[in-house]
C-alpha cells in the first residue's frame, strides 16, 4: 500500500508524462486544490520532483510549476542494463514484459548469434519506463541452448544481472548500430507517441567474457526524448587515436 506522499507523487508524475516540456501545471495553490492535499505535503513532493529534474519551479507573477523532462544519460561505451543507468540518475525504472517465447531465429539473428539452422532463441519483448513514462521498446534474443530456464527467471529488471547470477556470464563488449526510423502503429501505441514519430533504433550484439555473442537486440528509443552525444579526441600525426565515447540522452 503506497503512502499518501507516494500516491501524490504518482498522480503528479502521471500528469507530467502526459504533458510536454515547458507546459505549466499550475501554481502551488492550484495544484494543492487539484490533488486535494495540503501545500506543505505538496511542497515536499515537488522538491523531490524538482531534484529529479522532472519539474521547474518559477517564482513570480508569471511563475508556477512547469514540466521539465530531464536528460537520462545512457553511455554507449558501457554495457549496462536500463534499470542501472536510470536509477543512477534518480529515476524510478519500470518494465512491462509484453511477450516471451522460444522460437526459431530469422537469418539476421542466426548470423549475429552464430547459430545453426536447427538452433532456437529465447525472445523477450519489453517496454522500459522512467517514472512510469515509456522511453524504449526492446526486443532481445538469446541462444536457447546457452540459457536453459531463462524464461522462468524474473525478467522485469536487468537481464544482464540474471545472466551473471544464474549462468555465470559477464558481458564484455557490445557492437551497436544506430539509425533513425519511424514508429509503426503498434510501436507508437506502446511508446505513447504518434504514428510515424521519429524513433532511434539501436541494434546490438553483446558478447560474453569469452567473446561469444550472447544477445542480439533491437531497442527503439523515443525520438522526442532522445539525443545522441559523441565525444572524440583530436590527435596529431603519429599519435595513436583514442576510442570515441558516445552516449544516448533521453530528454
From TrEMBL:
Keywords: DNA-binding, Transcription, Transcription regulation. Signal peptide: none annotated. The keyword Transcription applies. Residues 1-70 form the HTH gntR-type domain. CDD domains: WHTH_GntR. The keyword Lyase does not apply. This is GntR family transcriptional regulator. It comes from Mycolicibacterium arenosum.
